[in-house]
Input
Amino acid sequence: MLICDSNGKGMDVGEVHRPDRGKSPVLPAASAAYLATLSGPEQRNTQRAYRSTLRALAAEFAPPGTAFTVADLGSEENTERLSAWFTRQWSGRAAATFNRHLDALRSAASFWSGQGWLDADPTRRLRRRGRAPDRTRALGAAEIEALLDLDVPLREKTLWTMLYETAARSSEVLALDVEDLDRRNRRSKVTRKGSAVDVIVWQTRTARLLPRLLDGRTKGPVFLTDRRARVALSAADVDTVSGRARLSYRRAEEVFTEFTKPLAHPDITDSGQLAAAPGWKLHGLRHSALTHAAENGANTGTLLAYSGHTSVASLARYTRVSPDALARWQAGRDPHRRR
Output
């Protein structure tokens, strides 16, 4: 597909050509130039997430056939328009989702400013949303056992088990390729936040499930979609034999929420309340693993290695003991408890 830059020249978006510095390009071309800077393997998920935000921005401000440039975004009128559009688009979503889309726009705007294409930050009227601390995100040991014993597809059982046993981020596990796995030693290299390369280690449950999931595959993404990819994707994100694509975080979260609603809300009937009630989140597996490790006496150094954090402050919110553990501690020190 061809688009035109500010000089009217055609440009194939399939091949990214960075527009000349100082000449403000049309929005799709500028977005392609920015996304090309997120080219490292460790930035794959960021590029995918930011691309969806910039596509939404282009659909609103630069539909096909228009010549809306990046410089146009900086005007007062379009700053107001962008603020209204962004709020309408994402204010009803979770704070983390709202902030992620805002980060995508701000990162792109910073790049465009650095190229001399944009004079003012078009997101300047928007503010990141704070997140109230949730101290109930860790699941109890019994809930984890019930979850991992659910009769669910092999892909989900393997993913959930690996996430809990390794305490890795969902994005880190979903980015794994078969070639990354050291199955003999039950470990794999992953790319953490900040592009740091680290190692995750799993236990027996995962080790038993992986051979069944891979079914002889020796390369390609570990976790695949149910069907063949319907759009063109990077070769690294597709299994060349089956044509199936790498499982996305969004789909993995949807399936997890669907299967865990009855566990998360056992006292709610199927009258419609169940569908509306918030369920467990995929991130809860990591949170639970770290909490349980802390409850079982893991020291700070072990927890930092387990979590991939680089500071104790970042780790603190994961290591708050669960209500069940607190109750056991209280019972154990109660001088009037019946023996």
Notes: Strands lie at 2-4, 10-12, 181-182, 187-191, 197-201, 224-228, 244-246. Residues 75 and 122 are 8 Å apart (CA to CA). The two ends are 77 Å apart (CA to CA). Residues 1-22, 268-277 have pLDDT under 50 and may be disordered.
